């Protein structure tokens, strides 16, 4: 009976009572196409990334050579290391977890009106072309006896924007993180981004902006609540 129960748990994506993403259980090939991982398993981290600096520097040096450049000339001597350090900074969100960032900044409060923080600056890296996209994030939630320190909303944006991303997934991850932090009645997130992969390459449309949203709980189910949030976000 015990063996059968353990087998059923593995098939259902649980082990020792804890959820696990099925992509690892099924093929061990990582989380590339795993919706569970990207949306819910928020605290996954790769190995210590500073250890990757020498290998990344060598890779950038090889890239320069492949472009026909001389990586030994004066202007490029330190470029591989600088580029590697920059990429580690651009993706530092992989080293951060929701638990570390929240750091006990959840407070019991009998507040049942909407909380909105808007126009949070965001910088991220397109996972398709490894070029930046940037913009602003607006977050609203309707508390249920708990509130979150306001600066923590901006820090949640940093966790997930400082990774290789697509804007659609980034928007959803922010909403799910706020939900996980304070279990509110609902969460709404709107992200407006400018993607350099559309501006400096490809179609080269310099005035294009991409807007994505995620509505959870009452923001999805109640049109009036959603409208109130959008009016607050769009007000000057």
UniProtKB/TrEMBL annotation:
Residues 58-233 form the GTP cyclohydrolase I domain. GO terms for cellular component: cytoplasm. Keywords: GTP-binding, Hydrolase, Nucleotide-binding, Tetrahydrobiopterin biosynthesis. SUPFAM superfamilies: Tetrahydrobiopterin biosynthesis enzymes-like (SSF55620). Its EC number is 3.5.4.16. InterPro entries: GTP-CH-I_C/QueF, GTP-CH-I_N, GTP_CycHdrlase_I, GTP_CycHdrlase_I_CS, GTP_CycHdrlase_I_dom. GO terms for molecular function: GTP binding; GTP cyclohydrolase I activity; zinc ion binding. Pathway: Cofactor biosynthesis; 7,8-dihydroneopterin triphosphate biosynthesis; 7,8-dihydroneopterin triphosphate from GTP: step 1/1. It catalyses: GTP + H2O = 7,8-dihydroneopterin 3'-triphosphate + formate + H(+). CDD domains: GTP_cyclohydro1 (cd00642). It is an enzyme of class 3 (hydrolase). GO terms for biological process: pigment biosynthetic process; tetrahydrobiopterin biosynthetic process; tetrahydrofolate biosynthetic process. Belongs to the GTP cyclohydrolase I family. PANTHER family: GTP CYCLOHYDROLASE 1, GTP CYCLOHYDROLASE I. Toroid-shaped homodecamer, composed of two pentamers of five dimers. This is GTP cyclohydrolase 1.
